[in-house]
Design brief:
Blueprint (H helix, E strand, L loop, with lengths): L3 H4 L3 H21 L11 E9 L2 E3 L4 E4 L4 E8 L3 E5 L4 E5 L5 E6 L4 E7 L5 E7 L1
Parallel strand pairs: 1-4, 3-9
Antiparallel strand pairs: 1-2, 4-7, 5-6, 5-8, 8-9
Length: 128
């Protein structure tokens, strides 16, 4: 048989338990929240392959948020240079070896990403 004192909880214990449950709930929902706005801490990964002068995926526009880190990985079948106009970022391409260009998109606008020697457009980067 349980005494009436054992069944009573102190107001402080109830408060601590409630605060702990609230913090656990807020932490769990914040970690997986789809409404979190992309920002400078997110990285936009863009992978491009060049084979037989064909660019995959086909050239198009890719949107990023101003302040976001952009990581472009280009793998080609011929020696060349990949270049991001407006940012003056480039990477030497060696056949079969991925080359990476990484930078913070801190300028608004539309920027061509292309190869120098073969003059292929890889994509257009739109920063807003």
């Amino acid at each position: 048989m349980t005494s009436p004192l054992a069944r009573r909880r102190s107001p402080f214990a109830v408060l601590v338990l409630g605060a702990t449950l609230l913090m656990a709930l807020l932490t769990a929902t914040a970690c997986g929240s789809p409404s979190a706005a992309p920002g400078a801490s997110t990285v936009k990964e863009i992978a491009v392959t060049i084979a037989g002068r064909q660019v995959t995926p086909p050239p198009g526009r890719i949107d990023v948020t101003k302040g976001q880190t952009v990581r472009i990985t280009v793998t080609g079948d011929a020696a060349d240079v990949a270049h991001v106009h407006g940012y003056d970022k480039a990477a030497d391409l060696k056949p079969g070896t991925p080359a990476t260009i990484e930078f913070v998109a801190d300028q608004d606008g539309l920027f061509e990403v292309e190869t120098h020697d073969s003059k292929l457009q890889l994509f257009q980067l739109v920063v807003r």
